Amino acid sequence: MALLDIDRLSLSIGAQPILDDVSLTVRAGETVGIVGESGSGKSMTALSVMRLLPAGARTSGSIRLDGEDLMTRSERAMCGIRGRKIGLVFQEPMTALNPVRTVGDQIAEAVRLHLPLGRAAVDARVATLLKRVGLADQGVGPDRYPHQLSGGQRQRVVIAIAIAADPKLLIADEPTTALDVTVQAQILALLRDVAAAEGAALVLITHDLAVVADMADRIAVMKDGRIVEEAAPLALFRAPKSAETRRLIAATTATPRPVPAPKADAPLLVEAERVARAYPLPRARLFGPRREARVLDAVSVSVRAGESAGLVGESGSGKSTLARTILALDRPDGGTVRFRGSDLFAMTASELRSVRPEIQAVFQDPYGSFDPRHTVGRIVGEPLHLLGSACAPDERRRRIVDALDHVGLAEADAARYPHQFSGGQRQRIAIARAIVTRPALVVADEPVSALDVSLQAQVLDLLARLRLEMNLALLFISHDLSVVRAVTDRVYVMQSGSIVESGATNAVFSRPAHAYTRALLDAAPSLERALTRREAATVD
Asked: What is d(CA 329, CA 323) in angstroms, rounded to the nearest whole number?
């Protein structure tokens, strides 16, 4: 008998159908992957198993765990099942954790709720869990707060909470979306090891086909609330039967439209030279010396007109600090940043204001960068205040409509609000806002990391088209090396605040000279490598 048996599950919220006749089984000790584009029903399937559905949700069918029908259980009974029999790892650990409680308290709460242990035993269990997920080895104790941890460390805390009571089933919903490649590899290895050690089944929900091909025993592909195909990884990806599976594979392997590399004599737009930045740390003792964390150490990068330059590195390597410096949002401690030959930090306020329309940004989380009370037209037109009287009301309206048209949105969309759009459409709105002033350079900080493969391909193709149409230069910051390889002419590799390697993107990625670059490439998920490993294991 299967550990988890979902049989003909249907779900609707109000008049909107969400899931349609979903059937899926998971055996003890098995890893099952669920893939599909945003809105396909992956997360709602997981929330249905946990019985954590929004008000007004109506369900039919059955969900059995060890033969027990969860659909008939009371909320009180489900509180004893969640965490005890089913653990859930959320996509965004910072929102899943309580910012005003220590991580030890939050793990201890999960232990106390489900295990009859005294205080000393609970503390010992917390220490064991911190060690099991690798935090004790990193010097992270139970007295730390979530904001004091990196993204990967916070995700380890969420995993510790999920396994606190040794559940039989572990559901991981996009557990590595915003993590860099090395931390992602560590988290995936941790999930695999934890599931194996506890004999637990693992349901892995992801939009990354390379990850699921490497991790899963079976994979279910979802579209429009239905499972359209289910098979073992080799069968699914080598001989896909459904059009949706073929489309996802094509989106994963697609490359944006080619953009001619800029001429060698193209003028320099931005030149950062030996930029340094350090942040103060608390004193170790009351009268001890002041300490500092050096974030940027003599960093030099440049971007030419029409060029796409990539910036890669692990979390904490200094990529975003460098981006803020180039955007003149963060003053460096040393070095210079020149735009069209002029030092940004030697400019007067009025001179800097005149430059800002030419340097714009696209952020990782567009929804977080929008005011939800403002219409799309107001959001897209927001940077136009930088143009002052040069942008009269009629010109403002024309530029907003033109920017929306450039990114594939309609004029009527200007009257709508951000929550009325999908994730990919919101990223298009963010790009429209960035190009509305007709800039020379756009700094794109992880612009596609939270998007599924099909939306990612659309956004990357859009950026490539805009480069052609507007002679736009990009500084593209990402932890996804396959994306950087597809969209950049030149790449800089950052480690611990320093540039350790740079050059033409294909040359650096094909023949990396630095050990750190090789480590990043080795850690990056690859669908073809995952399938080749499976084929080799089958032959052996």
From this structure: 9
Task: Of 335, 409, 338, 340, give the one whose Cα is nearest residue 375.
Answer: 409
Q: What CATH number is associated with residue 235? A: 3.40.50.300
Neighbours of 455 (CB within 10 A): 22
Number of domains, the chain: 2
- Digit-by-digit pLDDT tens for the chain (540 residues) are 689 999 999 999 988 899 999 999 999 999 999 999 877 899 899 999 999 998 889 999 999 999 999 999 999 999 999 999 999 998 777 778 999 999 999 999 999 999 999 999 999 999 999 998 888 888 888 999 998 887 778 888 999 999 999 999 999 998 887 677 888 888 888 888 888 887 889 999 988 898 999 999 999 999 999 999 999 999 999 999 999 999 999 888 777 767 777 777 789 999 999 999 988 877 777 777 777 778 899 999 999 999 999 999 887 788 888 999 999 999 999 999 999 999 999 999 999 999 999 999 998 777 778 899 999 999 999 999 888 766 788 888 999 999 999 888 899 999 999 888 877 788 889 999 999 999 999 999 888 876 777 777 888 888 888 888 888 999 999 878 888 988 899 999 999 899 999 999 999 999 999 999 999 898 888 888 889 999 888 876
CA-nearest of 345, 334, 294 to 495 is: 294
Residues 330 and 462 in one domain: yes
401 in Cβ contact with 411 (< 8 Å)? yes
Q: Which phi and psi angles does 404 have, rounded to 5°?
A: -65, -40
b/e for 433-451, b at 16 or more Cβ within 10 A? bbbbbebbbbbbbbbbbbb
Phi, psi at 135, each rounded to 5°: -80, -35
User: Quick one: 242 and 109 in the same domain?
Assistant: yes
Alpha carbons 429 and 219: distance in angstroms, whole number: 33
How far apart CA 481 and CA 62 sit, in angstroms, is 42
Cα–Cα distance, 206 to 361 (Å, whole number) = 27
The structure tokens listed for 494 are 């950052």
| Full strand arrangement of the beta sheet holding 218-223 | 86-89, 169-173, 201-205, 31-35, 218-223, 226-231
Q: For residue 523, what are the domain limits?
A: 268-280+291-367+440-530
- How many angstroms separate the CA atoms of 203 and 261, rounded? 43
C-alpha span between 472 and 462 (Å, rounded): 12
56, part of any domain: no
One domain, residues 137 and 85: yes
317 Cβ partners below 8 Å, 6+ apart?
494, 495, 496, 497
Distance CA 341, CA 463 (A): 26
